[in-house]
Design a protein that fits this description.
Length: 254
């Protein structure tokens, strides 16, 4: 019998003092043995289709640099993508880029609902609980979600290095872009930082920041770093420094 034996939400630095609340939905490639790797090879499970490579380590470095609480998702997004609502077919993808996911194909409704109830609901409840606790304590919350993306998708290379993903009317995200580009210029880094690339509002990627940010009237932004830049510690340190400096500048204004 398939089993989800652990909580999907791992809380890091629960007493962090920063206004920033970090979330990493695609932190892990873990698939319990009972799911038989969803019929995938080990190489496929470890590839970008199974998780956001480098994102969890980057998020942990940001948590430390900012003294911010962080919620990591414990399971592979191929079991359930917590940045998708249950109504979205790609929440349990039968196909990821060009790779078929045999264990998700023709999934019975009860098996899909088991993952919704075992992964999606408790993960989002944990985030909602953290936000509610902070509100009750009179604390401000800025929701920042950390992702990484593959440098080549469907055979097309991606030049952008940091994407700031948001709805068009997100003033905080606009400020983040401006400040991040300023820091990049000051450091002569030549970083390619863009708004709504490689994804944007027309893609089904804004569920997390909509549900827990926009709907709760919280400032929020979704950050996407190209995974070849954060697959090793040196790159993680570089991007954590830039992102932390940007967030510190913006949150210290509040």
């Amino acid at each position: 019998m398939q089993g989800l034996e652990q909580s999907p939400a791992d809380l890091v630095n629960p007493h962090g003092r920063s206004d920033v609340l970090l979330v990493c939905e695609h932190a892990s490639n873990y698939i319990p043995d009972s799911f038989a790797n969803l019929g995938l090879s080990e190489q496929e499970r470890l590839s970008h289709i199974g998780w956001d490579i480098g994102a969890a380590d980057l998020a942990r470095k940001l948590s430390e640099a900012l003294d911010a609480s962080l919620i990591l998702q414990h399971y592979s997004r191929l079991l359930y993508d917590c940045n998708r609502p249950p109504s979205e077919p790609s929440a349990v993808p039968p196909l990821s880029e060009v790779t078929e996911i045999p264990g998700n194909k023709d999934l019975p409704p009860e098996a899909r609902n088991y993952r919704v109830q075992g992964i999606y609901e408790p993960f989002h409840n944990a985030i909602a609980g953290q936000i509610a606790e902070r509100k009750a304590a009179g604390r401000n919350t800025v929701l920042v979600t950390i992702h990484s993306f593959t440098p080549v998708f469907m055979g097309q290379p991606r030049a952008v290095q940091l994407g700031i993903i948001c709805h068009e009317d997100n003033a905080f995200a606009g400020d983040f872009l401006r400040v991040a580009q300023k820091y990049a210029e000051l450091n002569n880094s030549g970083f390619d930082i863009r708004m709504n690339e490689p994804y944007g509002p027309s893609d089904p990627v804004l569920h997390m920041v909509t549900r827990h940010g926009d709907d709760q009237q919280l400032q929020n932004v979704m950050l996407e770093v190209r995974n070849d830049l954060v697959s090793a510690e040196e790159g993680q340190d570089t991007w954590a420094a830039l992102i932390a400096a940007t967030l510190n500048t913006l949150t210290n204004k509040n």
